[in-house]
Fold this protein.
Amino acid sequence: MKFASLLIGAALGVSLGAAGAQAADVAKGKIVFDKCMQCHRIGLGATNFYGPVLNGLIDRTAGTVPGYKYSEAMEKSGIVWNYDTLSKYLRQPKHEVPGVNMTFPGLQDQDDIDNVIAYVSRFRRDGGMD
């Protein structure tokens, strides 16, 4: 499974660090993503909810999903989502982007972070999976 996760990450252009590559598990990431489902949607037919839709997240500039009202802080953050930026943000959202509207306090376990990034990285902008 670890090798499959590495291949998926490589195919998507997700640059995982050594620790992230070792821990990435898409199936576990889907379970961790249940916490995110309180506000975010992903997959075919997903639309903005309390948070923006997360389809096509990797390599997308933060604050750019059409039809979603972002905080000024997120719109001006200049972040482009990749493994490193997501890893930092998911650990401490309000620290990484002060003034962000996201109320989620963050994930403390690096394996959970790596796994959820592996999961969301599989979704293309159209909601299909690679």
User: Anything to note?
Assistant: Residues 1-19 have pLDDT under 50 and may be disordered. Residues 29 and 115 are 4 Å apart (CA to CA). The longest helix spans residues 110-120.
